[in-house]
Prior knowledge:
Blueprint: E1 2-3, E2 6-8, E3 11-13, E4 20-23, E5 26-33, H1 39-57, H2 61-76, H3 79-90, H4 94-114, E6 131-138, E7 141-145, H5 153-164, E8 168-172, H6 178-188, E9 197-199, H7 204-213, E10 217-223, H8 226-239, E11 242-246, E12 251-255, H9 261-273, E13 283-289, H10 293-306, H11 325-340, E14 344-347, E15 364-367, H12 374-377, E16 384-390, H13 393-401, E17 405-406, E18 408-412, H14 416-425, E19 430-433, E20 449-450, H15 463-467, E21 468-475
Parallel strand pairs: 1-5, 7-8, 7-10, 8-9, 10-11, 12-13, 12-18, 13-16, 15-16, 18-19
Antiparallel strand pairs: 2-3, 4-5, 6-21, 14-15, 17-20
The structure holds adenosine-5'-diphosphate (ADP).
Amino acid sequence: MVAAKNYIAGEWVTDARGPEVRAPGNLDEVLGTVPLTTTAEVEAAVEAAARAQDGWRHLSGVERGNILFRAAAVLEAHVDELGALAAREMGKPIGEARAEAARAVSIFRYYAGEGSRAIGEVIPSANATTLQFTLRVPLGVVGIITPWNFPLAIPAWKMAPALAYGNTVVLKPAEWASLTAARIIELIGPLFPPGVVNLILGKGSVVGEALVRHPAVAGISFTGSGDTGQHIAQVAVERGAKYQLEMGGKNPVIVADDADLDRVVELTVSGAMRSAGQKCTATSRVIATRGIKPRLAEALVERVRQLKQGNPLDPDTYLGPVVSAAQEEKILAMIQKGRDEGARILAGGGRADVGLRGFYIAPTVFDDVDSRMTIAQEEIFGPVVAIQEAADIEDAIRIANGVRYGLSASVFTRDLKTALLFVDRIEAGMVRVNEETAGVELQAPFGGMKASSSHSREQGRAAIEFFTHTKTVAIRP
Ligand code: ADP
């Protein structure tokens, strides 16, 4: 059992005590405690990051990159351990959690390389003797607020670019992913000068809020719910801080009559049910044209019934529990709403008994779903998928776009014309053809349209846009 602490200026500190953390997949297992930190420690963390700023930003990019390479190596030596910890703490199956740990390693390596790539461009001046160029400079202290659903990858894909481009960091992970975050920091923190990386654990409404409001925090990168995101945006705008938000999705797959049915079924079930549907890119709507819909519904249900649900630490488990009692309650309420509004349950529809005390919800498939229903509009963030019928591809795209979100979307078709129409018309930041809605590559930009994000992009080279300011320099001899 671990009593997690805050990491401030290179020291593990806190007087705060907090409740026990139990494994969502086995509530009889106590994993540790997470402190309910006070705002005084947030102040101390931000001050430490501010003090470390000058030294860190004045290392060369190559020097910072070398430290990030070492961080990648240390994480790589602990991939199995980190995967197991994440699986225990938030309940995703061990195979997925281990893959996520490996991804965190690759992310650190990618941004370590960024330390030696271009941070500006030369732009011709009207005056022949003037040298005009741009220079990317760090924001300063960056607050990083992360959710529990990717407890390894999201802290990595925000921290690594922030650090590579010369910012210092205060990380505030989700309450349900605190032990995993603390372990990451325990492994990599000592590689950095004190104060460059800091960790604050506790409640979002207390320490997250204090971090967002702190005048010395120049940028906030957030992934989480839409309501919290909007609130953070308001606070940030008021005090002129830069912000970046990744929020929800209501991601559709469109299935055309000519689609490869086996592939559709495998990738739709994977997109909807892995991690028990707790991904912002999870597939939550299947919009099928008339010719394929009955066969597809049947095949989806058959596949869903075969899924092995159980202990996330069992390597054969396809889907584990959801993360918490609150999430479980929210998802079950959504399922009930689907029933009440007239959708038909083809599989699942309630709690699952896997022989363990945990938050297990059976993978659920709804049919006869109408666009006006709540389950067709609102994010569920659980193992629930809704099948909708479309008259043709244009109708399917119209249905797909008829929600307030626009994160990820996929079409399954063998027809290039259908694929291109979809690519052109779909309102989504992540657009896929014959691919799963979830699972994007770390070197490519990630983000959504509409209410899914604040329109900036993360990952890959795109991260430089958020984590730096551009200086335009003109030098005349
Ligand atoms: P979820 O429903 O996925 O838990 P939240 O948006 O509540 O989504 O949480 C995402 C992250 O935002 C967590 O780290 C949480 O602690 C943090 N958070 C919650 N409320 C606030 C707030 N008022 N200010 C800053 N961070 C917050």
